[in-house]
TrEMBL record, chains A, B:
Catalyzes the NADPH-dependent reduction of L-glutamate 5-phosphate into L-glutamate 5-semialdehyde and phosphate. The product spontaneously undergoes cyclization to form 1-pyrroline-5-carboxylate. The keyword Cytoplasm applies. One of its GO terms (cellular component) is cytoplasm. It comes from the Bacteria. This is Gamma-glutamyl phosphate reductase. Transmembrane segments: none annotated. It catalyses: L-glutamate 5-semialdehyde + phosphate + NADP(+) = L-glutamyl 5-phosphate + NADPH + H(+). CDD domains: ALDH_F18-19_ProA-GPR. Its EC number is 1.2.1.41. One of its GO terms (molecular function) is glutamate-5-semialdehyde dehydrogenase activity.
Amino acid sequence: MEEFLQKAKQSTSELLKLKSGEKKEILLQMADAIKEKSQEILEANAKDMENAERSNLSSALKDRLYLDEKRVSAMAQSIREIAMLKEPVGRVLEGWEIDNGLRIEKVSIPIGVIGIIYESRPNVTSDAAALCFKSSNVVILKGGKEAQNSNEAIAKILQDVLVKNSLPKEIIALLPDYSREGVDKLIKMDKYVDLIIPRGGEGLIRYVSEHATVPVVKHDKGLCHTYIDKDADFDKAIKIAVNAKVQRPGVCNAMETLLVDYAIKDEMLLKLYEAFKPYKTLLKGCAVAREVIDIQEATEEDFHTEYLENILSIKVVDGVDEAIEHIRKYGSGHSEAIVTENYTTAEKFLNAIDAACVYVNASTRFTDGGVFGFGAEVGISTNKLHARGPMGINDLTTYKYKIYGEGQIRE
Amino acid sequence: MEEFLQKAKQSTSELLKLKSGEKKEILLQMADAIKEKSQEILEANAKDMENAERSNLSSALKDRLYLDEKRVSAMAQSIREIAMLKEPVGRVLEGWEIDNGLRIEKVSIPIGVIGIIYESRPNVTSDAAALCFKSSNVVILKGGKEAQNSNEAIAKILQDVLVKNSLPKEIIALLPDYSREGVDKLIKMDKYVDLIIPRGGEGLIRYVSEHATVPVVKHDKGLCHTYIDKDADFDKAIKIAVNAKVQRPGVCNAMETLLVDYAIKDEMLLKLYEAFKPYKTLLKGCAVAREVIDIQEATEEDFHTEYLENILSIKVVDGVDEAIEHIRKYGSGHSEAIVTENYTTAEKFLNAIDAACVYVNASTRFTDGGVFGFGAEVGISTNKLHARGPMGINDLTTYKYKIYGEGQIRE
C-alpha cells in the first residue's frame, strides 16, 4: 500500500509538467475511449449487476449501479465538458508589491494527491478522475465493492489513454485494497495523500472524519429548512415549499422541515395542506400544527431526520427568532431558506444562519454546482473550511505565493 | 468540559450581533485595560518566573516567558493595531447572477470557535484573543503550563472588558483543563470547535494532527533551502544566503540548507566560506563541498534537520533539476529560494517547487504576515489547505453563500 501511494505521490510532478492544452487533449481522448470501449464497460457492469442480484441489493442501489449505452455516453459527455472548463491551475488570485519592491503573487496550484471514497454510481469514477486530471491532481479512487468490476473497467480505459500519452498510469489510480483496512490506511497516509473526499452514508463519513490524519472535505447530510415568515407572499411561500420538498426528495438540498410563523399558522397551514395533497407528501407536525390540520405527529427525532423521501416535518415557531434558533439546533449547515417580503427580517435571517447556502425567497433545491455556474461538480461540501457548499473544480486547487525579488534581504 | 465548550459555542451568536465599530471600541478598551492593570500581569508573571526557576527551565524558555513593563506595553499596542485592521467579516468575495435571476453572493463569515494551543510566550494570549475577537470568532486558549499565571491574569483582564460590555466572558476562554487529557478532549469536540491551531514543537503538532477530529491548521517546522544557480549574480547570491541564515537563525523562515550549483562550486563555495566567517556560522557540507572548503561533514540527518541555530548544511547539486529534487525530498513546504539571473531557470523553479512561499532572488526571511502586509499575524501555516504560509486575520474567516430570490423554484 505504501509503495502504491508513493508512486501516486511521485506522479504529481509529471502532471505539473502538462500544459493546459495537453490536459484538454488527453481528456478528449479519454471521452472518446470511454465511448469506443463502452462494450467493455457494459460487460463489467453486467457482472456487477449479477452479483447485486445474488446479494439482494435494493432496487434503488441497483438502479444507481446499472449502466447502459445511454449512461456510458453521458459519462463520455461529462468528461468532454470537464475538458472544456476554464483552466483551474495558475490563476493569479491576488498580487501586490511591498515596500522594498518585492512582488508577491498568490497563485492557484493543484492540491496534490486526492483520495475520493464513494459508493455505487460508476459514473463517479470517470467524473472524479476527469475533474482531478483537469486540475492536475493525482486521484486515488475507492468506489463501492458492488461496483468494482465497472470501476475497474472504466479506470483501465482512462489509464490506457494516460500510458498512450507517456504518462504514469498512477495519475488515475484505484485503491488496490477494497476492504475497510484499505480505507483505514489511505486516510492515515498524510505523507502521500493531501485530501480525502468521502461521499456517501453518514457512517462512512463519520468513520473517515474520526480516523483520518489527512484533511477531509466531507459531503455530508443536508437537513434543510424553509421558514415561512408572517410577512411572506403566500403564493411564493407555497410554491417554494412544495418545490423544495417534492421536486426531488431524495437529494441533499431538498427540504426536510418546514417552519411556519405562528402569526399566520391557520391560513398558511391549510393552504400548505391543500398544496401538498396532489403530491401525496406524508406530512408530520408539531402539536400546534396538528390543531389546525389533521396530520401525523412529528417527534423530536423527526426534526433530526434527513428523510430523503416524500415526507415533511412541520413546526410552528414564534417568528424569525425562534426559526433561527430551531435551525441552529437541528440544521446541518447545508441550505436554509426564508420566505418573507420584510427587508429587516430577511437580513436578520441571512446574517444569523450559519449554513453553506442561505436563501431569501427561493427554493433550497438550487444548491448545486451546475446551477451556481461552476460546471461539473465535485459535490456539495458540508465542511466549514477550504470548500463550503457546491464544490467546483477551483476547489480542487490550493495556492502558493510566488515572490519576485532583485536581491532583497531582510534588515 | 463539554458544558464549557457548549457555552463557548453558544456565545458565537452574541459575537455575530456586534457591529464592526463596536468590536473596534471594545478592543481599544482591552488595550487600555492591559496597560492600566499591567501590575496584575507582572505579579502573575513573577509567580511563573519563580516556578520556572524552581523547575530549571532553560534560559531561552525563561526569556520567552518573562514580562516587563515594556513587553506589556507592546501587548497593549498590538491589540490597538489589531483593532484598527480592516474588518475581516462581511467581505463580498464574489457575486454574480444566474440565468433565472437568482443573485448569489459569497461572503466572508467567522469560522466560529477556534482553539489555539501554544507554548511559553504570554503575549500570544492577548494577540490570539484580539485577532479572534476582531474576526468575530470565539477563542479557546490553551497556553503552556509554565505561563499559566500570566495567561490567566491577561485573560481575566480581557474578560472583564467583555463583561463590562454585556458580553459573555466565554468569548475569550481559557481551557479549564491544562493536562494532555484536556487537549485531547478539546481536539475531538468537533461538535463545538471548528478549528484548532497548534503552535509549538513538532511533538505537539504531530499529536494534535493525529488525534484531532476538529480541522487543524498547523504551524509546523520550516526546513528552508536557498539554491544558488550557475547563472546567479554572485553578489546577490552571497548577500541573500548570509541574510537567510544569520539575520535571525531561530525562526522558521531562516535557511537551513544551501544548495550550490556544481558548475560554480569552486568560486562560490570559497566566497561563501569567507562571507559566513564573520558570523561564526557552523558550516557542514557534502563530500563534494568539502573538497573545496574545509568544513564539517553534513550527514543525511543534517539535511533533514531544522537547526534553528547558526548552523548551515551545504550541498553541491547538479543544476536546478537536482536542486528541485533535493527540496522535494527534504523540504517542509515552507519557504524556498533560488538565486539566478536566468529567466527560464527561475520559472522552472517557481513552478516546480511546492511550498507556501517560493522566492526568486530574495531572502526566505520575508515569509511573514507583517512583511506581506497582512497586519498582525496568526502565524505561518504549513497546511496545504484553508490557509497556507503567512496567515493573516482574513484566514480566520470562512464563507457562506447568500442567495437573493423573488420566488424562484427549480424546474
